[in-house]
Amino acid sequence: MVLALIAVLIASAWPAAEAAATAAQPAAACQRRCGDVDIPYPFGIGRGCYLYTGEGDVTFGLTCNLTADGTYRPFCWEYEVLGVSLRRGQARVRNDINPWCYNATSRSMDAQSTWWWDVSDSWFHVSDEDNRLTVVGCNSLAYVTSVNETEYMTGCMATCPSVGRLENGSCSGMGCCQAAIPRGINSYWVEFEEKFNTSGAVAGFGRCSYAVLLEAASFEFRTTYVTTGDFVESTGGKVPLVLDWVVGKETCREARRNATAFMCVSRDSECVDSRNGPGYLCNCSAGFEGNPYLLDGCQDINECEDRRFKYPCSVPGTCINTPGGFRCSCPDKTTGNAYYGTCEANKSQLGVHIAIGVSVGLALLAIILSSAYMIQQRRRLASVKRRYFKQHGGLLLFEEMKSNQGLSFTLFTEEELEEATDRFDERNVLGKGGNGTVYRGALRDGRAVAIKRCKLVSERQKKEFGKEMLILSQVNHRSVVKLHGCCLEVEVPMLVYELVPHGTLYQLIHGDGAAASHGHGSRIPFATRLKIAHEAAEALAYLHSWASPPIIHGDVKSPNMLIDDGYAVKVSDFGASTLAPTNEAQFVTLVQGTCGYLDPEYMQTCKLTDKSDVYSFGVVLLELLTCRKALNLQSPEEEKNLSSHFLQALGENRLEAILDSQILGEESMEVIEQVAGVARQCLEMSGERRPSMRQVAEELGRVRKLSRHPWRGGGGRGSSDELEKLLAGRSPNTYSELQVSNGYLSLNDSAYIGIQSPR
């Protein structure tokens, strides 16, 4: 919808005027109202009536159309504009509701389960304060994710209770749910999870599910939306959506340097930085109102006569309007406080002197109280920092560091990390994800580090944070990113890691971003891919089997694997990690992770186990074999999900069809099929049937030896004997069954996956 909104704003651009100061002002005869909606500048109807940004073709142009009910309404293309707020920098529009409906005849879902828009080059963002992702239906699970699938993901699930338990106005999970969206987004995908949507297949409920971004304040749930499926009919298929906008993409400080293009042209206006990032708005100064984007557009408010305000002075005081304010005056030959009605006849000069003395005394008292208040605030800030430090387990860490002199871990102050990142400047951002933002930094000792500002920490995590940091600080593995320390004197802790300079495995495989210069998937030798997979598997096996206590990563994916010199891999981003649960109460109850990598069993049970990491690693292994993305919404339906596409191709003996063509030309099919067999075992739907990460690492290690073994080019019985000796060390529990028969290595009596004896 918003893509179409911006398209119409593009449609009516005109050539730039000679002088920016002239171009910023609309024509005097411009239409400023359409129907019952005011159209304030910088928006406008018709040429010369709205702000032309001068960047691309994006403008603030609208049209005023006659609608079917005989009234005129403002539109952006075919989408209706409900109103524009200059002070808040917002526009309300009607957003389309996208249903996904069950077809009882074909026992399938009609239409697509996903839709998207992208206005990343525009001057608009979806308001995170005013809008919510809203899902309506019976057992309906939907997400909203970033277009590139790595920046953010949020979603919610509307459950399917008995019809009698639904309540009008309640959108807390039964038949309706809502979830907050990230700040500053200007592109997203909305997608239904097909496995969990059963609307239309359950008696008593309508056949459609709905997912839409809408203005939370304007939405009220009705039970008929689920029982009869009349959400679209009752709303006309459209709901309000709030968009934030700016008139410049610079900060106020930067915009003022170009006086001819600065948009806050009214004399009594002020510039306001956007809260969504670079960009600014204009507002009239206090005591003024009007349009700050027009010359002399901000007019003084006459508080003495404006009926919107209560008369500000007390009788017998007289109100006198002043620019931006007012003052109260006592009548002639009287003195006192006209604001409080204490005007009295003039008295002797003694009273004047007394009044002056009292005023001076009050001024001194105010200075003393202000100083005391500042001192108190500083002490209060220090107290808050101490409370956060204690709350996050800082005392435990401090005591452990004193008792264990060999512990290489540092407790940083907030000031140290602000200095290292230039006060968390946006130019130092390395990446953003669902668990926080990572910044590049340089410590005072010259070490280059990556500093992660976490977003949210649960109450359980707060209580155990210090303990978990102590455990993570002792993780010492060449393929796990080293944790140097943390900062605990802030509300949400910050973590300090070693900096790995060459980007992520995702960028290396798909040729995107910082790792592009280091190589990409189509040029990575198979031996290097196998090396990366083996080292990553050993790191996860270390976390599962040798860390004390064991650690479950929780978000294994190629963007969380960093690449160092020599294609050495380092597992990173423990934002979703947890210690292995020891009882039922410790299981995670909120599904988190990344679409395409999520363990389907975890999605159903909300129980995060080490086998969840195994499934996600299997998807990473497929990325290395195929150079395809784990989830590609632009691909045909059967190829969107890489793991499903792989298993289908394997079942149809079409493995070569989805493999990267480069590795087919440089490695024997027998070795490639061995790796594919490991991936298939990792992707078992049941966690109990998957191997452990330790078994996966051992198997990949054997395959590496196999790929380098000198017998691979020879033949005869000796080579076959060597093969059997090489495989003899395999643990009998690595997979369900392992056989060498007729020259083939087969797993679980499934379709042939293995290696052929050399001839």
TrEMBL record:
One GO term describing the cellular component: plasma membrane
GO BP term, example: cell surface receptor signaling pathway
TM annotation in the entry: 350-375
Topology within the bilayer: Single-pass type I membrane protein
Organism: Oryza brachyantha (malo sina)
Name of the gene this protein is made from: LOC102716290
Protein name in the entry: Protein kinase domain-containing protein
SUPFAM superfamilies reported for this sequence: Growth factor receptor domain (SSF57184), Protein kinase-like (PK-like) (SSF56112)
Domain (Protein kinase) ranges: 424-712
Binding site for ATP: 452
